[in-house]
Amino acid sequence: MIKKILLLLITISAINIFAQDTTGLNNIIRLIDKGNIIQAKKQIDKANTVKNSENPTYWLYRGVVFHEIYESHDEKVKTLSKNPLQEAYKSYINARKYDLNKMYISNIVTALGYVTNEFTQEGIEHFNSGDYKSALNYFESSIAINSLPEIMYTDTILFYNSALASEKNKDYDKAIKYYKKCMELKFGEGKIYIDLANVYKEKGDIDTYLYTLKEGLAFFPNDTDLINELINHYISVSDVDNTIIYTKRAIEKDSTNSNLYFILGSMYESKKNIDAAKKQYIKATEIDSTNTDAAFNLGVLYYNSGVDKIKHATTKAQKKQAEYEYTRALIYIEQVYEKEPNSRDVLYMLKNIYRINGDNVKKAEIEKKLSELK
After folding, report:
1. Is the distance from CB of 182 to CB of 160 less than 8 angstroms?
2. Domain assignment present for 131
3. Is the same domain home to 247 and 263?
4. Is residue 161 part of a domain?
5. What is the distance between the alpha carbons of residues 119 and 89, in angstroms, rounded to a whole number?
6. Which terminal residue of the chain, N or C, has fewer Cβ atoms less than 10 Å from its own Cβ?
7. Distance of CA 65 to the CA centre of its chain
8. Are residues 265 and 303 in the same domain?
9. Domain total for the chain?
10. Rounded to an integer, what distance in angstroms lies between the CA atom of residue 225 and that of residue 222?
11. What is the Cα–Cα distance from 22 to 34, expressed in whole angstroms?
12. Which helix H or strand E contains 216, and what residues bound it?
């Protein structure tokens, strides 16, 4: 990978031979070309003098040496430096700084192009291993290279990775900065607003968390993830009215999601609007017959209605109405029982309903089941 730079430098080295090598550096390139990195490292260390402190040739060759160390698979070579890629990067930057005549600028830009890719890969590996601080340093170094006037390249993924690493590292201000940069670059659509909002939430700034989600929803009104984020928040803080508002909005976007009808039913139930709650639970079970949460809640509503009616029944008609409520409850409770045969709540309700409707055989089966569970 570094060979492209090396070939250019060998050419420069050959030119310098005829012009008399006054720097004493050309032999370093010959050593690298022969694969003698250990000796090249010794030579470049010797060249670390006051005379070469502002010599672009020295810094460029030094960068190549450390770059070779980084890329080497030879364990002896790898021990020559603790952080060779960073040393290569610093050297190339110094070469650029002191190359006033732009003699090496093409070589430097090529080399830095390799470095930024390697920084990015290192950042990903450190992120995946849980070292978020180091990951962020690598990502930011890549961003710095891409920002150089000779390069001026915008890698949006780098800004997003930097935001993620900053957030994981609990550097929330940087996370906010990088997520906002992603927004500026039109990256991520509604998801970026959720990511940014959650940083504010982690900081404890709930007002800005909500403002960010709603701002995102204004730009991306069909983004169901943004709506669901708001629903989940309002559920968590027991804000029934706002939960209803955003759940209805979610249903407008996705009318086949049975869980949304379950949530809406739960909210109406909490407001004691039982008829509205039943309607939503029924809709949830119609869409998805395996939605046991909706079936259970619906069964409980009918069961409780039956209990209430049987307590106050003084006529045959009133008792019949109570029995009807129990019969409706049984439909849904038995559905849940098929999925959750060991639920004590379900078993107790079934036992009572079978007792009331006189089904002693099934009542005995449930009582046996309860005794076995004990």
Report:
1. yes
2. no
3. no
4. no
5. 10
6. C
7. 38
8. yes
9. 3
10. 9
11. 22
12. helix 206-219
Print the domain residue range for 232: 204-253
- 63 and 88 Cβ atoms separated by less than 8 Å: yes
pLDDT values of the chain reduced to their tens digit, one per residue, 374 residues: 555 555 455 445 444 433 344 456 778 888 888 889 999 999 999 999 898 999 999 999 999 999 999 999 999 999 999 999 999 999 999 999 999 999 889 989 999 999 999 999 999 999 999 999 999 999 999 999 999 999 999 999 999 999 999 999 999 999 999 999 999 999 999 999 999 999 999 999 999 999 999 999 999 999 999 999 999 999 999 999 999 999 999 999 999 999 999 999 999 999 999 999 999 999 999 999 899 999 999 999 999 998 888 888 878 888 888 888 888 999 999 999 999 999 999 999 899 889 888 889 999 999 898 888 86
CA distance to 69, 266, 277, 334, per residue, from 261 (Å): 61, 9, 9, 21
Token pair in block for residue 92: 């190339």
Q: How far apart are CA 277 and CA 268, in angstroms?
A: 5
